[in-house]
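Same chain as my last thread, 566 residues:
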Amino acid sequence: MDIRKLIAAKVSEYASVPAGDVEAWFEVPPSPDKGDVALPCFKLAKSLRKTPPAIAAELSKAFTGVTGIVKAEPVGGYLNFFLDRSGEARTVIEKILSERENYGSSCEGKNRNVCIDFSSINICKPFGVHHITTTVLGNSLARIYKHLGFNPVRINHLGDWGTQFGKMLVAFKKWGDRETVENSESPMRELVALYVRFHQEAEAHPELEDEARATFRSIELHDPENWALYDWFKEMTLKEAQRTYDLLGVEFDSYNGEAFYEDKMPAVIEELKEKGVTTVDNGMTIVDLSAYNMPPCLILKSNGGTIYPTRDITAAIYRKNTYDFYKNLYVVAYQQNLHFRQVFKTLELMGYDWAKDCVHVNFGMISMPEGTFSTRKGNAIYLEDVLVKAIEKTGAIMREKSPDLENMDEVARQVGVGAVIWGPLYSSRIKDFTFSWDKALNFEGETAPYAQYTHARCCSVLRKADGYDIEKAAWDCLDNESCAALVKAMSALPATIESAAEKYEPYLISRNVIEICSAFNKFYFENRIMDEDEGVRAARLAVTDAARTAIKLGLYLLGIEAPERM
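reply #2:
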């Protein structure tokens, strides 16, 4: 029996609480000398009407002589369990090897949809490196939720509406050429050059701004010629963006952007008015949010035009009606904190109780040592360029370190792309992040290449062993500090995955992966895996196999591939 379930069952019997609740309370002590599993007894104080230290002391007696538990030690308000290391190792390893890629999965999300709005690139603009966080964070959350049984709906809410498209059309008609754009290696760079030129020309000829507004108005009215060009711009953008998504291994279920909601907004605007949610101020239709310490949420401009909140409110209602979501996540930078607070509060005022299920998963900004980005000024850095450069740099490193490696190009792609993905996912999402080539491609530090190299090391050991018989494993040989630390790190992965979903923080998984890798490398150097004794060899190979499985799973949930050779 899983020793944690046994502990939970006894605590449940003692305190008359569900065993499942008890399992969720378990913590991992900060150091081995404080045990392997800790139960915070504060959770039981109210129902038992006793102090946490008294509960810990009394409860410890129930575990005297229990198989698999060496000692149950009360420390303050905690009851710390010291487990039989070899027995614990066997339990964890057999569980990992029996479940493999399903380790830590659950049915928690069965029949529940989670909408995840992420990446959300802009039409006619570069897929810049500043889009990396929303793209990899959203993709990782989708994989995590799927692992927990949810059905993730991946939505790329395209920025495909607004006056900038009037500017783009004016620029293209004045200075552009369709054949040049279509035959270019990067159509977007051709279009961006035109967009930059528009802003340069508009400084001397401000009337171009009026022409752009009038041109966008013609798009709103579906002028055949301008609409066809606008549609072509969108097609070119998505075609080029797909190259980047393919490199990242990112997929979407919907590309419905702002333009999709144009014909759906009138009904929502009417609903807002009928429910008395809006007022008119200086010709603008607004939702007064002063009672909630927020500025007004603008619904219609004085000229009757819609704006971002109008489209996001409409999109939220559409998603609820279409997907009946359990959660509706928006993976968007923290600069939009106020915007989403206004949108969610407006939905609440409209009487939608599911507004509480809309969550802004905000994050910090990414920067490069080169500085900030601006499409208008023409100094944006393309994400595709960063990925290609990472692959090239990785290839150069690997040709030096492993010149005889098979599938060199494929492995360089896996490692280079993984290095870029890892950066935004190794710290709390709200922190700003500066990308560094030296740190990202370091095979020794807390990076994706280090984790991938450790996985490849596990694979190498198992290849050389050419199989093992787990039935012959001598589990007693695993009773040592290095193995205990590895087992502890691997056993923490399921709870870590659940916590990552609950907190929308994939970095918890990346940290756990590094813990597993560090612990395995220590185990590798301190234990002779290919021991002459068949039982010892089988047990240590089983540990290696479990580590390989856990590392690969953790990397997958982050959106990173795990090469078998490096």
